[in-house]
Amino acid sequence: MADGAFYTITHSKVQVFLHCKKRFWFQFLSGHQWPPEAMNPPGIVGTGVHEAMRVLCETDDPELGRGALDRYLRMPAHESASEGTDWRRLAFELYEKGAVIHTSLGTPDAQRWAEKTAEFKHPAGGIVVRSKIDRIDRIGEDRWQIIDWKTGRFDQDEVTDAQLDLAHLALRSSLNRLVKREHTVRALAVNLRSPELPRVRELRRDDAADTLRYYTNFAAQMRANTDWTPTPGPFCNYCRWRPQCPEGNRDDHADYLDSFEDDEEEVAD
Ligand code: SF4
After folding, report:
1. Residue in 192, 67, 89 with CA at minimum distance from that of residue 134
2. Substitution site in 30, 236, 252 for ligand 1 pocket (most atoms within 8 Å of beta carbon)
3. Domain-by-domain residue ranges, the chain?
4. What is the distance in A from the centroid of ligand 1 to the CA of 24?
5. Which of 17, 18, 241, 252 to mutate to test the pocket of ligand 1 (most atoms within 8 A of CB)?
6. DSSP helix/strand/coil, 37
7. Best of 245, 253, 258, 269 to mutate for ligand 1, by most ligand atoms within 8 A of CB?
8. Average pLDDT for consecutive 10-residue bins of the chain (269 residues)?
9. In this predicted structure, what is the pLDDT of residue 256?
10. 133: part of which helix (H) or strand (E)?
11. Contact 227, 250 (CB under 8 A)
12. What sign has the CA pseudo-torsion 109, 111, 112, 116?
């Protein structure tokens, strides 16, 4: 969890902390071996489409993206989204919408990056912020765009905004020789089910400084916390620790949990 004296902050780690303290304890403090992750169809579709969009961004070849998606969905572990299923049809439908966006951007090869993992070390605050950016495009001399692809049926705007703010901070750190202080960044969350309605944030360098201050303070709260009370809810459906958690397996909220099936994206670790 820590990088030397640094406390690591990631979007998914913060979201786990906010959603369920017991899951946070299991995942980041207990030292338990992480149980294998169950692959549900929405998660398979999401991961497969992200993989295909990465290949498309790297190669500028839509056929190679389609091939990557096809190979991913044909894996035995992804049988629930195999040939003939609605999940497979959905995956290709979402990919084709992403391919249209890729073509419309028309960014030259040297001006775009796919799935860039970046980190920002902040010695004064004792934190390191890590983020993965699905796509980066330089769209002008002093103008950048970052995209987070979404594939679920449901997004929470405030969670999406937090994710984009962290990605913006990571962009300025990882490409700091290219992204100058005065450059501006458009941060987009594009749900490929409805790409015509992206979540858009216009961000400047001082916004990144605010984000850094916020997470420095929040990391102090996370470090000081000693209350690991469980919070059963829809996220139990996607919690790898559920078999070890009596509260997450209670029958009296099973219907409630099932009603959220497919509506929540997996919280990555
Ligand atoms: S199963 Fe639910 S209550 Fe239990 S740790 Fe996971 S998210 Fe928390």
Report:
1. 192
2. 236
3. 38-106
4. 9
5. 241
6. coil
7. 245
8. 75 95 96 86 96 98 98 96 96 98 95 92 92 96 97 93 95 89 97 97 96 96 96 86 88 49 41
9. 46
10. strand 127-140
11. no
12. positive
Torsion angle, CA of 187/193/196/202, rounded to 10 degrees? -10
CA distances for 209 relative to 116, 182, 258, angstroms: 21, 13, 40
Whether 23 lines ligand 1, by a CB cut-off of 6 Å, is yes
244 CA to centre of ligand 1 in angstroms: 9
Ligand 1 pocket, residue 183 CB under 6 Å: no
Give me 211's structure tokens: 């984000």
Show the beta-strand stretches assigned E in 42-101: none
Distance (Å) from CA 230 to ligand 1 centroid = 6
Cα separation of 265 and 65, whole Å? 22
Nearest to 110 by CA among 74, 138, 78: 138
**Torsion sign across C-alpha atoms 155, 78, 233, 260:** positive
8 Å CB contact between 116 and 132: yes
Largest CA distance in the chain: 57
Q: What are the structure tokens assigned to 191, written together?
A: 């749900």
For the chain, give me the number of helices (H) and strands (E)? 8, 7
pLDDT of residue 4: 57
Closest protein CA for atom 4 of ligand 1: 248
